[in-house]
Amino acid sequence: MEKERLKKLLLSLHQELETTDSVDSETRQLASQLDSDIKNLLNPAESVKQQDSVLEQAELLETTFAAKHPTAETFIREIIDILGRMGI
């Protein structure tokens, strides 16, 4: 169930970013990379090093979105919470 919620949150995050003009290209790239890394992480063969990297990326995005993109920050915060419940 957590995996499905994670996928839905990633989709919602990307939809939010697509409708927001004030997100710079670097932030969009970080969000795309996080999406890709999380999808790879959901594959049980991924390493613990990858897990740490994904969490760090999510936390960086949360900080980036905190002031200017509160809706996107909400999605990222929930993604971080789910990753934590999954032991990542």
Could you tell me the radius of gyration in angstroms? 12 Å
β-strand number: 0
Structural class: mainly alpha
Shape: globular
Element pattern in H and E: HHHH
Rounded mean pLDDT is 83
Which segments are poorly predicted (pLDDT under 50) over 5 or more consecutive residues? none
As a percent range, the share of helical residues equals over 70%
Report the sheet-strand fraction: under 5%
Structure annotation, total helices: 4
- What is the end-to-end distance? 16 Å
* Number of separate structural domains: 1
Q: How many strands, what sense, and barrel or not for the largest sheet?
A: none
Write the topology of this structure.
Layout: H1 2-18, H2 25-41, H3 48-68, H4 70-85
Using brief descriptors, characterize the structure shown.
single chain; about 0% strand; about 90 residues
Description of the structure:
The protein has one domain. It has helices at residues 2-18, 25-41, 48-68, 70-85. With 88 residues, it is mainly α. α1 (2-18) runs antiparallel to α2, α1 packs antiparallel against α4 and α2 (25-41) runs antiparallel to α3. The longest helix has 21 residues, at 48-68.
Summarize the structure.
The chain is an all-alpha fold. Helices cover 81% and strands 0% of the residues.
